[in-house]
Amino acid sequence: DIYAHVAEIVYLNNHFYGNASKIIEYDDRGKCTGKELSWFTQKTMDTAPVGHLVNQVCFAPAGENLMFYNSPDTVYFINTDYEFVAKRSMMPWNRKGIAPSMGSVKYTSYYKDTTLFYNFYTDTVFTVTPTSLIPRWVVELDEELRFPTQYLYEDGLFSDAFKCWESGNLENAKMIKMLDHKYIVSGVF
Predict the structure, then answer these.
(1) What's the pLDDT tens digit per position in 147-171?
(2) End-to-end alpha-carbon separation of the chain, Å?
(3) Which of 48, 96, 52, 101 is nearest to 76 (CA)?
(4) What gap in Å lies between CA 183 and CA 146, rounded to an integer?
C-alpha cells in the first residue's frame, strides 16, 4: 500500500488491520493474510462508493467489529469479513463533497477494554459497541462559546476568507468573525 506511512493500525481478535487507501489484515506475527478491502471500490450500506463520497477520519475497534467515521455525518460498522453491519448518523448532511476538516481532532480513545468515540458536533462522548454508539458523557459549553455548526453548512466562507487575506483584511472575513473566540473540544483523552 503506497499510503502505508499514514495508515492507522487497529489490533482486534489476534489480527492487525492497517487502514489507509485500503484495509489490510495481518496475523499476530505481522504476516499479511490476503484479506483486504479497497476504499476506492467498496460500496457503503447506501451503495455509495466510500473512496469518492466521504471523508474517512477515524478507524477503530468496535467489539468484534471495526468502525470508521465518515466526517461529518456517519459512523459505519463493518465485520472482519469487511461486510457493513450497521451505521449511525451523527448529524444531518445532504451536501455533496467533503466537509471542512477539523485538523487535529482526536475522535477515539480507549479506556480499559472500551473504545470511546468523541463527536464534537454533538459534544458527546460515546461508548462504542459492535453495532452502535451509546452516549456516555456530554461536554457542556455555553452557546456563545461553542463552535458554530452552521460553519459547516455555509457556502463561500473559504473563498471569502482568502479574498480578505489577499487584501490584508482577514479580520473582516465572515468565517473569522463566525469562529473568533469560539471553542471546540478537539478530543477526549
Answers:
(1) 777 766 677 777 888 898 999 998 8
(2) 30
(3) 48
(4) 5
What digits encode the pLDDT tens for the residues 78-130? 999 988 899 888 776 665 555 555 555 678 888 888 899 988 778 888 999 99
- For the chain, which residues make up each domain, given as ranges? 4-179
CA distance linking residue 141 with residue 148, whole number of Å: 11
Whole-number pLDDT of residue 168: 93
In this predicted model, what pLDDT tens digit does every residue of 30-89 receive, in sequence order? 899 999 887 766 666 565 544 444 567 788 999 999 998 877 778 889 999 988 899 888
Task: Just give the CATH number of 4-179.
Answer: 2.40.128.630
Q: What is the 3-state secondary structure (H, E, C) of the chain?
A: CCCHHHCEEEEECCEEEEECCEEEEECCCCCEEEEEEECCCCECCCCCEHHHHCEEEEEEEECCEEEEEEECCEEEEECCCCCEEEEEECCCCCCCCCCCCCCCCECEEEECCEEEEEECCCCEEEEECCCCEEEEEECCCCCCCECCHHHHCCCCHHHHHHHHHHCCCHHHCHHHHHHCCCECCCECC
Residue 68, C-alpha cell as written in the block: 470508521
